Amino acid sequence: MTRTATHCPYCALQCGQWVSGDGTVDARGGGLCQKGWTSGALLGHPERLTTPLLHGEPVSWDVALGFVADRLRALRAEHGPDSVAVFGAGGLTNEKAYLLGKFARVALGTSQIDYNGRFCMSSAAAAGNRAFGVDRGLPFPISDLDGADLVVLAGANVAETMPPLMGRLQNARLVVVDPRRTPTAERAIASGGLHLQPVPGTDLVLALGLLHAAVVDGHVDSAYLDDRTNGFDDVWRVAAGWWPERVERLCGVPAADIRTVAGWLGRSRRRYVLTARGAEQHAHGVATVTAWINLALALGLPGREGSGFGTITGQGNGQGGREHGQKSDQLPGYRHISDPAARAHVGAVWGVDPETLPGPGRSATELLDALGRPGGPKAMLVFGSNVLVSAPGSGSVAERLAALDLLVVADVLPSETAMAADVVLPVAQWAEEEGTMTNLEGRVQRRRRAMSPPAGVRTDLQVISGLAAELGMKGFPAEPESVFDELRAASAGGISDYAGITYERLDAGEALHWPCPTPDHPGTPRLFAERFAHPDGLARMVAVDHVESAELPDAEFPLRATTGRVLVHYQSGAQTRRVAELAAVAREAFVEVHPDTAQRAGLDDGEWAEVVSRRGVVRARVRCVGTLRPDTVFLPFHFGGLQSANLVTNPALDPTSRMPEFKVCAVRLERATVH
Ligand code: SF4
Fold it and tell me: Could you tell me the domains of the chain?
């Protein structure tokens, strides 16, 4: 049987897959995790959406798109263009992300577009842009990690989220920063490294303590600081006040461990500092990532072959999804929507007067909170995102969705959000469509069609193109390569410049990392070798200091809840919860609790508990874990309904990135009365 070379539908590692016409999945050029191996179960899944639904009833595409277009026209006429919102996703291909951004700005004329990447990547992106002048998750090829001697993983649980990546770290001593003893933390201990277990919300001060120890013990690279950075003196003025014993008092990590890790960082030859959601999903996430970047810069790591700083992007197209204009403040090529030159360039590619392009809109959490309120959007189109499970404070998100005049959801399966929609549009999934995805190292990869979508299903590009046509707009192609060629022109000269990347080059097997400005350019696997992307070529070190989490424990809510992932599920679980083999491993939510904490709450292992915050209640089965901090409980965020972790999370936002504080909120634990 013919096999088609494509990539896994899930995370940003984008492992290579062979997919056969009957939906059989095989590994291509490396390993797959359990999620990747079982992804074929999504093809031909009995719950697959195969016909448009209008108020729950099957209708034709003409009826569905006609209804949506009529409602959008009426709302826009009565309330203006910003009465319609668009919500995208970090799992959409580059082509979809691009066309969706253009559709919002040109066909709808709305500023109200954002996407779920705001929930997972925006703090790392903002910190990377500020420090280096460019945001690419790994500014070096991922294969560089094969030779690492020491890797610090700050808030990353890659042994569960992207297990094949662990193969690249097997020769390294690992240091894992995480309030939980995750499988990654276990590997750190086995590697001769350390598991540092801070109080949730105190990662920033731990990074300051490591910098303090590195400076005091003479591990700073002074020549690098002089030649390649500015701002160290201001950074040190803050870090000087965070000696390891003081850091230990605040975050609970032993001062001796801080000094040990600083010594390893100073003495190892090939060293990396990598952050992920644990460091980023805070109301001070940009500052926290900045603190880790400052540490890496002080040690002279970024831009030096065999060392570096990076952030481990989560969603499948988490990198490309934040480059092409589905973010509220952004135009394609990672251009800023308020920049007159960017507006002129993109306006010319789109054939519109730049003056007609809307300005920046609300960020994802603020957008969801404004739905149906006076002055807020009255309709929303959602592509590939399950906001009812993935957004913070999901109880109030349900209220806001219910307050809309029109909710339209394009999805593959009946996610919780799709089931709340007025109109559901069934779309093709990964092995049924063509396109490109940009992985965590900024390498653009081809997604290829191995089979036709089921009858009645359209691609997202066909849906966007069809809606634009219903609204009387031209210039919205549905053919992926045509969209990509337009994206190349729109990105030309921008930070993430794809102008030289073509389907032909990718299909010929070239490994192309952006920027790649011309068809004869080899791409840029390694950034910052000579200079950083600021006009002066220097990296900017920005002084940051400890900030308390937005919500601290008190007598009523004495515990800190943190959230994260498990091995067998991806994001909101809308796909993986429907794969029998994966659901059999983790069918329901659980709350990890230290045995002493469970005993104080009168709970035994396996009993149903209620985790209560100021915003809501999650019902989950108690899982007693002796290695967890007694002041902390952990909830996986892959489950919906009464088991949705985001019923309790805090929508407090980072002032710069507008990322919500998923990683810490105050809760109490009670015995569940019903389950
Ligand atoms: Fe690879 Fe991620 Fe897919 Fe697992 S989920 S197979 S790690 S791309």
Answer: 16-119+318-478 (3.40.50.740), 126-311 (3.40.228.10), 559-671 (2.40.40.20)
